[in-house]
Amino acid sequence: MREGHQGTGPGAITPDGCAVELYRRLAVGDEPDVIEAAVPAGSTVLELGSGAGRVTEPLAARGFTVTAVDESAEMLAAVRERSPGVATVHGSIESLDLERRFDVVLLGSFLVHTAEHRTRQALLEACRRHVKDDGRVLIQREGEDWHRDVPRERRDAAGCTVRILSAEPVGDGVDSMHAEYVFPDARWTQTFLSRPLDGREFTRCLAAAGLVVEDVLTDDGTWVRARPEVRRESPNGPPERR
């Protein structure tokens, strides 16, 4: 188990504390609608951190050509069950190099809020490495008050009560988050580390990876569309950034 991460409950648990059976059960939210509205129809999509395929399945059904990447073989098995035609890649996102580029790269599941600066930059660099120069990167962020508005709960459409029970500072701007997921017949918990990022820090991290914030896609600010910063040679001076 990754340091600072833990999960309990039935079935396999991934290194970051996610329960595979839980994510098989949870319903998809509005992510497919947000993504579909933000990128051209029929785009090739690289989904980094696909989990059990909750978003993968509806994107494939809407005509996107999706490649799903996850570090958990059990999660990818769930993806293949849901979407047999989707290509899957088992491995670390940080070191991923597929030697091809995509129209769209997705970095969902709030992965950009990883506690380690080096890991965050490696994730964003993987996005830039795999997106076409005229493509787009869609990134899911935490809401601004998510670490302050605790405890809180919501009802998932699959019949699960999702609770964020606490956010406890552990130093260096990082919080230990504790979540609970309760179905009528099963209960899971997850503890994970998360680093809040304000708008300025988020933009700086993207810039360091060669990405530029283009616009915010949702009213709550949780989905952002970025474009690659492409350097073009100028005949009379240093490269121009666009």
What is this structure's SSE topology?
Blueprint: E1 6-8, H1 20-25, H2 31-38, E2 44-48, H3 56-61, E3 65-70, H4 73-82, E4 87-90, E5 102-107, H5 117-130, E6 131-140, E7 152-155, E8 161-171, E9 174-183, E10 186-194, H6 199-208, E11 211-216, E12 223-228, E13 231-234, E14 237-241
Parallel strand pairs: 2-3, 2-5, 3-4, 5-6
Antiparallel strand pairs: 1-10, 6-12, 7-8, 8-9, 9-10, 11-12, 13-14
Q: What name goes with the CATH superfamily of the domain at 20-144 and 196-231? A: Vaccinia Virus protein VP39
Order of helix and strand elements from N to C terminus: EHHEHEHEEHEEEEEHEEEE
Give the CATH class of the domain at 20-144 and 196-231.
Alpha Beta
- Total strands: the figure is 14
Question: What is the CATH topology assignment of the domain at 20-144 and 196-231?
Answer: Rossmann fold
- Percentage of helical residues? 10-25%
Q: How big is the Rg? A: 18 Å
List key phrases describing it:
7-stranded mixed beta sheet; 6 helices; 5-stranded antiparallel beta sheet; 242 residues; 14 strands; 22% helix
Please sum up the structure shown.
The protein has 242 residues and is of the alpha/beta class.
Task: Give an overview of the whole structure.
- The protein has 242 residues and is of the alpha/beta class.
- The protein has a domain at 20-144 and 196-231: 3-Layer(aba) Sandwich (Rossmann fold).
- 22% of the residues lie in helices and 37% in strands.
- The chain has six helices and 14 strands.
- A seven-stranded mixed β-sheet has the order 4-3-2-5-6-12-11, with helices on both faces. Strands 1-10-9-8-7 form a five-stranded antiparallel β-sheet, with no helix packed on it.
